[in-house]
Amino acid sequence: MVTETPAPFALHTATFLQAQAEPIFFCREIIGVEPWDYQLKILHDLGLESQVAAHTGHGIGKTSLGSWALLWFIFTRNESKVITTAPTWRQVADLLWSEVHKWARKMDLEKMGWTFPYKLLDTRLEVEQEWYAVGESTDEPEKIEGYHAPSIMYITDESKAIPDKIFDSMAGGMTSAESKHLMLSTPGASQGKFYRVCTNKAEKGDWKIHHVDAEDVAVSTNGVQVSKKWIENRKKVWGPSSGIYQLRVKGLFVDMVDDRFCPASWVERAMSNVVKSSKKAKKIKAVDPARYGPDLTVVGMREGMKVLPMLKADNTSVPKTEQIVYDEFLEHRPSEVIIDIGGGLGAGIYDHLLRRSKIRDHLKAFDGANAANDPDMYMNRRAESYWNLRTLLGEGDMQLPYDESIEGQLTGMRYEYRAHRGNTVIKMESKEDMRKRGMISPNEADTLMMLFSDELLQEDAPGIGIWV
């Protein structure tokens, strides 16, 4: 349904009517932007359909598309309302609305006869008291439920992580004379409204669904936003068949059950590799301490990409483990000694070793529960460091000692994708969950992971390394 021409228009009625009916025309003539091929298809359907959803790869300009849709609707519908939301307030304010501000500055509304003043605030664009666009948080569904207007549009950015109750709150507004809903998101977990709309025939109903592969966008746009180099790097880091590549690049939903952390072929290759020793190779030691019970204290060392056989000990007290680490340091003189302090036991060992002047400046503390350097990708530092290890194993340049414990842990450990703060992130299986499946604690794998985490650690003070 196309509403009547808004009151401010005295001239250029034909131009206005075309802009009102065709969002592509509005983008080209009023905003002054040439949409990419996939954006043209979505904009075309948005002009004709009531409900449009797109599951896309990462970084393909979908948020810009959402801002164009907002500007098109609010400036071509009399007393209209546009309500935007996203999983977090940061995504509402810093992503979609920053794009609204960017493109609003480029508009030439006079081309279609617009002479009416409007106010553009941080997350609100207001023409009149009952004619506006606004950004709302998802933690107050009652606010979203209260919107009514002759013409109303909902824009949900990163829809994968928006709770069903928010979509339920929009149902009342969708009964307006003219109502539209645009859902944009990279895929996430196999649950929720966005997933069902995009994949479930029964729930699709009147929704027009678009799938956008970042590989295709990179080719069709000559890599303007999604570079081929970035995609090739993701293939290298994640592997083209990995679930995270299918999500973030291909824009495909994948089965979100646990997945094996590492192919057995990668571990077998590493255990058959021969890396020549070099005096210039960086020496790193890592310690995963355990006290009593079935778990082992493990001390590992690498020289460059060559991992040496691990030292393992059971029933080790704090003083005993401290002495083992110190003796190993004096014998091999590594540049760094990384100690897992996450379980509490390692913190005592770390603190005691700080009192020893010869090793003090070489100590680094690791706590896998701390925030990742890239929180949009990883649940915590443990997940980030394990994925770093996985990448290195996939590259094939690492030499591992033959150790059935390492092999079993790396190939038996699982990871999953979790919704976290508005993103789909990688989470490693916990030690507790591994034990429930009958697996032993991954002490050797954790030590190996820490051995290659040194580049992710940052210096807090000279000689004392901690996660930040």
UniProtKB/TrEMBL annotation:
InterPro entries: P-loop_NTPase. Gene3D superfamilies: 3.30.420.240, P-loop containing nucleotide triphosphate hydrolases. This is Terminase large subunit gp17-like C-terminal domain-containing protein. It comes from marine sediment metagenome. The lineage of its organism: unclassified sequences, metagenomes, ecological metagenomes.
